[in-house]
Write a structure and sequence with these properties.
single chain; alpha/beta; Rossmann fold; five-stranded parallel beta sheet; two-stranded antiparallel sheet; 6 helices; about 20% strand
């Protein structure tokens, strides 16, 4: 059985059951104006045991209690603030957690913008790639997947 998350994202049922009790204490902020894709991404992260807050507006993300998050996943092209501007505001507010950029326009991203983020990945990649990157930052017992 496949669980669709994005036209190009899928994970097997076996993978979706790999939720770790340790992950449930890890909080992720997901910010993307694409409502359906972000909601699905949030559900997949929850299935993997993470606590997730989804914001479809970058300004709403800035009103969250940022001290509770361990990692953020941001889109780049959003109304009001793009991912770079949101990252800079998050940092100005004193956040120190890793910020991963998930964008559909990775090739158009400047080198100056890329270095600001902990990782920059293409939205068209399978969800497993995002899960692997999140695990690198948040899971103490993570063993990197050599195929990623």
């Amino acid at each position: 059985m496949k669980i669709a998350t994005h036209p190009d994202w899928s994970i097997s049922e076996k993978q979706s059951l790999r939720a770790s009790p340790e992950n449930s204490q890890r909080r992720i902020l997901c910010v993307d104006d694409e409502i359906i894709g972000t909601a699905i991404r949030g559900e997949v992260l929850k299935e993997h045991g993470y606590s997730v807050v989804v914001c479809h507006c970058p300004l709403a993300a800035l009103r969250c209690d940022l001290s509770v998050f361990d990692l953020a996943v941001l889109d780049f092209q959003m109304p009001e603030l793009n991912g770079r501007e949101l990252l800079l505001r998050l940092r100005a507010l004193g956040t120190g957690f890793p910020i991963v950029l998930l964008t559909g326009c990775l090739d158009a991203l400047s080198a100056d913008d890329r270095v600001l983020f902990a990782r920059c990945i293409d939205k068209r990649l399978q969800i497993q790639c995002l899960l692997e990157i999140i695990a690198e930052f948040l899971d103490r017992n993570h063993v990197p997947d050599p195929d990623m």
